[in-house]
Amino acid sequence: MELKNKRVLVVGLARTGVATALFCAARGAHVTAAESRTEAQIGEPVAKLRAAGVTLELGGHQDKTFIEQDLIVPSPGVPADFSQLVAARKAGVKIWSEIELAYQFLNGSLVGITGSNGKTTTTALIEHILRGAGLPTLLAGNIGTPLISMVDQTKRNTVTVVELSSFQLELIDTFRPNVGLFLNLTPDHLDRHHTLKAYGDAKARIFENQTAEDAAILNADDVGAAAYAPPKPQVYWFSRKQRVAQGAYLRGEEVVLRIDGEDHTVLRRGEIPLAGSHNLEHVLAAAIATKLAGAAVPAIAAGVRSFAGVEHRLEFVADVNGVRYYNDSKATNVDATLKALDAFPGRILIILGGKDKDSDYTVLQQPLREKAILALLIGAAAEKIEKQITGSVTIERAGTLQRAVESAERTAHPGDIVLLAPACASFDQFENYEQRGRIFKDLVRGLQINATGSGAQSPAASSSTRR
Q1: Which phi and psi angles does 229 have, rounded to 5°?
Q2: Of 194, 206, 293, 365, which has fewest CB within 10 angstroms of its CB?
Q3: 300 in Cβ contact with 133 (< 8 Å)
Q4: Residues 166, 128, 313, 348, CA torsion sign
Q5: CB-CB neighbours of 51 under 10 Å
Q6: Does the pLDDT value for residue 466 go beyond 50?
Q7: Is the pLDDT at 11 greater than 90, yes or no?
Q8: Rounded mean pLDDT of the chain?
Q9: How far apart are CA 317 and CA 337, in angstroms?
Q10: Residue 426 vs residues 23, 266, 431, 435: alpha-carbon distances, Å
Q11: What angle do CA 19, 22, 24 make, to 5 degrees?
């Protein structure tokens, strides 16, 4: 796409919006950036944008600004049914997500990963395996670095591995991954998509533009995702419960790749360093994706064995007086919290709460009854969660993350697990789930310092201070 002299509006100036505005300005577009926050609230990026020649419309949105554009690129946090976007669409203005714009300029091949849970771990694992196999790779998307920021680094032989959210996929046009993964579908973001079908339809757009030359990978054990198997690309499956015709599956205790009718053993289940059956699914998905992207079986096995996991995803923080603390701040929906609970045998003190996403917390009752000894509730959703889990576990309204950690430390006994797995978004008390996770780790580090009296800390705990 030629951007020179095009009128481009970028809506929202978080990380993705800033990167998009600077990208378009560098290619000669007449860029306007609209943001409801004020200049003081946005901070440092304002100077960079002005230096690049970007016109800023801050503190609100003007209807005519949306109509007078050739292209509008909303940030992922801006709903597709935002009133001014609807008006612009009716006026014939092209509206693309940032990943669609980036795709127009991308070189090399693309592996895209979506799903309700496990996207970040699977994305990071795929990139880790491919890099270890000697392939030139880039990691981008919803995992942290906007895809648009990586475009200039891509070459003909680059494999770009991208985590994709429903927010990003709902506004694509020609975006087409060579390998696309749909990991699972469970209720999430219903406050934005309103129905599970609309949410699933948005995620399934990952396959929309694929051809017979491409590969679609789906979870055979997940009814919601499996229903979206596409007709055009080659379909591969992964399963920990059944043998698949093409893809990856668990045979006894072995991870097996099945391609063109032949089975290839990758490694044994006990060699996987990540805890939980959900992480086994991530390994299966990554194994078939990396094989299709060009990695050999021994390199896949080596990559899985050496993968240390991802920050904020069932991340071990520290052992304090025999109590183990785990940070799963990325558990921003109920299904992710169910998977976190499933990863441990019991004696769990769980921290729940945050910004509700129109979730049903009643499904937590049985696993809490079986696995947990205390639920510490924080944030705006605390009252709703308490009503929906009452009777399953002892409940304490801690209010804040700090008070929850302090209470857990007073209550827990050696052998217990303190688990941050909130089942909610973070935006009521934190900037994002990363900040929530880092603060949790800092609080645990404080407990550890007090316990040792020497300031000694585990590598996992100290990582939060290096960020």
Answers
A1: -55, 125
A2: 194
A3: yes
A4: positive
A5: 10
A6: no
A7: yes
A8: 93
A9: 17
A10: 29, 38, 7, 9
A11: 105
DSSP label of 127 = H
Question: Residue 177: which of 129, 227, 95, 233 has the closest Cα?
Answer: 233
User: How far is 53 from 244, CA to CA, in rounded Å?
Assistant: 54
Q: What is the pLDDT of residues 26-74, one digit of tens each?
A: 999 999 999 998 998 888 999 999 999 999 999 888 899 999 999 999 9
Q: Are 418 and 323 contacting, i.e. CB atoms less than 8 angstroms apart?
A: yes
Could you tell me where the DSSP H helices lie in 306-432? 334-342, 365-371, 382-389, 401-411
Question: pLDDT digit string (tens) for 305-329?
Answer: 999 888 898 888 999 999 999 999 9
Residue 132 in contact with residue 299, Cβ under 8 Å? yes
Residue type, 301: A
Task: Write down the pLDDT at residue 465.
Answer: 28
CA distance 3 to 105: 11
- Residue 104's region, left for phi above 0, alpha for psi from -120 to 50, else beta, is alpha
Residue 141 is predicted with a pLDDT of 92
Tokens at residue 98, please?
Answer: 């940032």
